[in-house]
Amino acid sequence: MLELTFDNEFNLKKTFECGQNFRFNSTDNGKTYYGTLNDRVIKLEQINKKRLKINSNIQKNLEIRVKRFLRFDDDYALMLKEIQIDELMKKIVIFSQGLRLIKQDMFECSISYLLSQCSNIPRIKHHLNQLSTTYGKRVQYNNKIFFLFPSRDDLTKVTLETFINFKFGYRAKYIYNFIQNYPDFLELPLTNSEIYNQNLQCIEGIGQKVADCIQLFSCGDLNNFPVDVWINKFMIKYYNNGKKASAKKMNQVGQKLFRKWAGYAQEFIYYYARETKINL
DNA sequence: ACACAGGCCGAAT
DNA sequence: ATTCGGCCTGTG
Questions:
Q1: At a CB cut-off of 8 Å and minimum separation 6, what does A202 contact?
Q2: How far is the CA of A118 from the C1' of B4 (A)?
Q3: Residue A158 contacts by C-beta under 8 Å, 6 or more apart in sequence?
Q4: In 10 A of CB A49, how many CB atoms?
Q5: Residue-level pLDDT at A278
Q6: Distance from residue A168 (CA) to nucleotide C8 (C1'), in Å?
């Protein structure tokens, strides 16, 4: 058992319902979340605004793993201050405050976002569950059954046809090729943000948006600003005078506005836009 | 039936 | 350098 007190607010529900991660679920309306973290199951409980309780079936290195996963060392207060660039962002910060970025496993994150294109959250979750329940290790914890996310080794023998049968659609070959030709650089430390992004985009099925998501959610490269259709509409309306523009353009605008905190700003905006159902 | 969903790719401007 | 249709499948 482990308890962590953060420097500032950490809201479990906002963090796991904002769409950055697909495999943590709550059974009690957001107070408790269960999910898997590489080799183990973890249980996260909200004690108060800044404090979480963490349990796991494996105690070894739990604190260091969880702190990394939850980005314990982020200067959250500074981030909140620096993304409030105008009245609108002040409003959004009030709404989304407590949402935290998390640092996800590279392989799992890449597969997740390769599957995400032109899909929706329930379907992405279903696809990830098919992979986990079929090829991941089964773990019982607190009288519940969990499946770890399969490693690359677990999936190298899986055929393309299997992924097609899982109804991955045209994404099946992206997944298959990604597993067969898993690039070495993904496991190396990120040195140059732009170069890393370009390398990601050389992988079949990874374009700008998916590359940005992987780099943000898995590498923890916080100056990335993924632009999906929602963010694109938001940016056009509020930061481009309503003039239509490409996702690429809005990505640049977002990075310029929010700099090293662009990733947090993006998730704050995304959460706000989706939850308040504002007209975009 | 038909459009669209948390994009990407390749071809044609 | 930017725009456009097609792509698997599920949902309304």
A1: none
A2: 9
A3: A135, A176, A179
A4: 12
A5: 86
A6: 7
Asked whether strand C has any atom less than 7 Å from the CB of A117, the reply is no
Q: Is the CB of A185 under 7 A from strand C?
A: no
Range 74-113, chain A: CB under 7 Å to any strand C atom: none
CA–CA separation, A124 and A120 (whole Å)? 6
Neighbouring residues of A142: CB distance < 8 A, sequence distance ≥ 6: A34, A43
Q: Residues A102-144: pLDDT tens digits?
A: 999 999 999 999 999 999 999 999 999 999 999 999 999 999 9
CB of A207 within 7 Å of some strand B atom? yes
- Gap between the Cα atoms of A138 and A111, Å rounded: 20
Residues with Cβ within 8 Å of residue A191, at least 6 apart in sequence: none
A263 in contact with nucleic chain B (CB within 7 A): no
pLDDT at A280: 84
- Residue at minimal CA–C1' distance from C7? A170
> Is residue A57 pLDDT above 90, yes or no?
yes
Strand B and A121 CB separated by under 7 Å: yes
Contact A117/A210 with Cβ under 8 angstroms?
yes
Helix, strand or coil, per DSSP, at residue A214: helix
Chain C bases near protein CB atoms (7 A cut-off): 2-3, 7-10
- pLDDT, tens only, A139-188: 999 999 999 999 999 999 999 999 999 999 999 999 999 999 999 999 99
Q: What is the pTM of this model?
A: 0.97
Measured distance CA(A247)–CA(A229) in Å, rounded: 8
Q: What b/e sequence results for A124-145 when a residue is b if at least 16 CB atoms lie within 10 Å of its CB, and e otherwise?
A: bbebbebbbeebbeebebeeee
Strand C and A170 CB separated by under 7 Å = yes
Q: How far apart are CA A81 and CA A73, in angstroms?
A: 16
